[in-house]
């Protein structure tokens, strides 16, 4: 039986970048024998406009049936004033929690061709290859109680809860240790254990799990220092593991080391093989509709999808090589453009990846 992919373009640049990944997917199906069923559905603002909900039941049901989900991005100013419980972002969070995708892998890899695109000095970033493992279904994003309440006297107070159970920490720690064991064997756990009890427990549990991984060298770092170290000397890191919110922030920071946030793919995984794959960036309302967004993070997310959920490592490698080739050819969207390279639009990058697929 062929596998199923659910495609969720979403909002802003979402549909533009997903269209390029679909070109790549269609080429693999038509020319390389990839057998997969592809369906499309609504999520985020697009779903709110059509159905009133950022995650229609039909979309969640299709996502549950699928072997993998490919998502563009959600959100935008049009929906930013809605109640937080029904904003586009809730659609994404609902998919993550509904599918129990607790492990978010965000690889920050600098393609040597883009060393000039990074805002950091070449010697700081060249050869960079970091894996950020972000906890994705817990922490302050999902903790209760949460809300905005009126105090006596009328002043309002907003509150959220940072909460982690031992089992939640343990399972994300294991994912990170397993990944580190297959890489350079160095894992840095990032927390704020000097101030926050929930991450004091985080540190304790990660340390305990680490006893089972003799081949992995475990270190701990406070998140403020980690943010600083990421721009000071990023190559000191191999694998980072951290909480939902810290991982969100640190991965945007790591993205800039690679030249642009438009380069960073991600995989969100649960206990089974199912996963959701998306670029780490958002819907980029400031450039939506201009045809200039970088589709490579989405195309590389498709590569991760083929590798982790569809069991097609050769197809994934073909995509990775094609992306490498397009960068070798000097084609760049504006976010990664530098002197001596050719500035092109979103669709030209997708077309070039499709052409490169055929000769890599
Ligand atoms: P953003 O990531 O959308 O954009 C930040 C900056 O990066 C912008 O200047 C944008 O133009 C640029 N950028 C992002 N992706 C790019 C690409 N592929 N190519 C070139 N440039 C790119 O973050 P934001 O502006 O803070 O958020 C905009 C909306 O996206 C918000 O509604 C936010 O909630 C949402 N968001 C969604 C996701 C997601 O769906 N996974 C992730 C982050 C933010
Ligand atoms: C991300 C995004 C999301 C997050 C938002 C849109 C809910 O910023 O995937 O990095 O905070 O997780
Ligand atoms: Mn983010």
What's this model, at a glance?
Helices cover about 40% and strands about 20% of the residues. The chain is α/β, with parallel strands linked by helices.
Describe the structure.
A hairpin with a 5-residue loop joins strand 6 (147-150) and strand 7. The strands form three sheets. This protein has a ten-stranded mixed β-sheet with strand order 2-1-3-12-11-4-5-10-8-9, sandwiched between helices. A two-stranded antiparallel ribbon has the order 6-7. Strands 13-14 form a two-stranded parallel ribbon. It has helices spanning 14-32, 45-51, 57-65, 88-98, 122-125, 166-182, 197-210, 223-232, 244-257, 296-308, 313-328, 346-357, and strands at residues 3-10, 36-40, 68-73, 103-109, 129-135, 147-150, 156-159, 186-191, 217-222, 239-242, 267-269, 275-277, 331-332, 342-343. The longest helix is centred in the first third of the chain and has 19 residues, at 14-32. Helix content is 41%, strand content 19%. The structure holds nicotinamide-adenine-dinucleotide, 3-isopropylmalic acid and manganese (II) ion. Nicotinamide-adenine-dinucleotide is lined by residues 13, 17, 73-76, 89, 92, 261-262, 278, 281-287, 293-294, 297, 335.
List keywords for this structure.
binds 3-isopropylmalic acid, Isopropylmalate Dehydrogenase, two-stranded antiparallel sheet, 14 strands, ten-stranded mixed β-sheet, single chain, binds nicotinamide-adenine-dinucleotide, binds manganese (II) ion, 360 residues, globular, alpha/beta
Percent range for β-strand residues: 15-25%
Main-sheet strand order equals 2-1-3-12-11-4-5-10-8-9
The number of distinct structural domains comes to 2
Taken in chain order, the helices and strands follow as EHEHHEHEHEEEHEHEHEHEEHHEEH
Oligomer: single chain
**Main β-sheet: number of strands, strand sense, barrel status?**
10 strands, mixed
Class derived from helix and strand content: alpha/beta
CATH level-4 homologous superfamily of the largest domain: Isopropylmalate Dehydrogenase
Broad shape:
globular
- Please provide the count of β strands: 14
Indicate the percent of residues in helices: 40-55%
Helical element count?
12
